[in-house]
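Why does residue order matter? Because the sequence determines the fold. Keep that principle in mind as you read this record.
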Amino acid sequence: MLAVLFALIFCSVSFSQQLGLRESVMYALKNNPEIRAYMAQVRMQAGSAKLVSSEFFPTLSWEFDYTRSGGSGISPWDLYSYSFVAEWEVFSGFETLNRWRAERILIEAAKGNLRRVMLDVALDVVRFYSEALAARYRVVAAEHYVKSAEYSYRLALARYRAGLAPWADVLYARSKLKEARYKLVDSKRDYGVAKGNLASVMGMDPGKVEQVELREVSPVLADFSFRSLEEKAVELSPEIRAEKKRIDAQKKRIASVKGEYMPKVSLYGQWKREDESLFPDDRSLWSLGVRVKLPIFTGFSTLRKIRVERARLLSFTSDLRKAELEVKRRLWEAYQDYLKAKERLVASKEYWEASKESYRIMEKKYRVGLASIVDLASAQADVYDAESSYYKSLTDVVFHYYRLVRAVGRIPVVEGL
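Structure:
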């Protein structure tokens, strides 16, 4: 965890005309405002622990007193004094020690929450990057569709001029060409919007990525054992770690409250000057002593505090079980989606190859008059749909793999399985 934070602080992420997935994730982890907020919470918790540790040290104070006294038949008189007072609680029944330990443990819980946010932000970047990459591939597919539609239009026009096809074929081919060009324009618009969404989740002005192209990402096709992934997830999940730290800290809080039953031992000392003048210099006094304070009856407040803290411990224990079940459920869902994404990738590739073969045959048939222009256009549309589906399946595998990485408790792209 510390190594990742160190790398983020000192890394320099820059890009001009191309943007990769790793660069996007690293930029987001460094600039995302939610991550910065949780880093501040870690520092706040560390400050709370230091605040409690201050109670281990002695205190020194300067005091000034003024008293005017009088009585029946007695003239009023003034008494001024100033003194230096030192006090040190040398034994608090381990109350302060356990409170300090609880605050120290909560620092680790805060770090767990920080890591959880880092995992979520990285996965969001992967999600939007995959969507933007899929939109870019749709542009490619639409460009292929336009070229194919242009070829069909020229073919229909040539057959019409040769007297082998009616003018209706030319009109139909031209309408399909306009439809293909419309799809291309629509796809380019979607690609621009998707890049803007990616820039936003990265913590960047969307306008800065207008001219930036996304690098391709190779999908990870691997076989995993769910049981081994589940063991890793239970061990590495920041949600489970944070809940365990909260339970440990709560146990220290209970021990701290129990310390209120114990005696408190303090050392104190005082040096004092006093007399009737504003700046006393007549009498000097000093004292040293030991103070022991043993609570005998506190109105049952300590007992009730213990009951409250124990009830809170039971609540945290239930939260831990809930977190474990949620981590396992999320892992199972990610694992199943990854398996399905791999199967869909294979199926979509076969669909694309079959549609291209079907179009090739249909184009030959149309040339010799054995197929209509509608059949040819339908085959072209099938190729476009199949190509778009293949690229969508490709980016789905990329996303669901890194979703599986996040479910295990590792930072997507930055850390692997």
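Residues 67 and 79 are 5 Å apart (CA to CA).
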